[in-house]
Amino acid sequence: MDLADRCLDEAVKSHLGTVAFTFAEDKALIRGGPVTALADTRYVRVSNQWSACMKAEGFEYRDPIAAIDDVKWRGTEEATALEVAVATADVRCKVETNLVWLGAAVQSAYDNRYITENAQELNDFKDRLRQYSD
After folding, report:
1. Domain that holds residue 19
2. In this predicted model, what pLDDT tens digit does every residue of 16-65 receive, in sequence order?
3. How many CB atoms lie within 10 A of CB 49?
4. Please, where are the H alpha helices in 58-98?
5. What predicted TM-score, i.e. pTM, was given to this entire model?
6. Same domain membership, residue 123 and residue 99
């Protein structure tokens, strides 16, 4: 159990007295949740197109997550001119490649399959969550 899980455990104990459930439980969702679109070949193809578009704009990122997580954006309160330029190119390339639509469509398909395949377990999980909100 990592530090965040231990903190959550302590918070639950202090408010509920016992720990029957924590959000750290398998990262909360049945079987860890639905598959993400990030490794799907359709998404990877469009992400590569996005990367090529960004390179043509003068910025090299392997994928949109790398652009978001660029360490250059950390520690500043206001966006720099470079950050605005990268963000502008990012949006332009996402529109050009249709990356956001495709990513949402692929993720939606994975989510729907996950819900269908795990309906009973998800309902049980929902009931357990309700115990903590009542």
Report:
1. 1-33
2. 544 444 445 545 677 888 889 999 999 999 999 999 999 999 999 999 99
3. 16
4. 64-68, 81-97
5. 0.70
6. yes
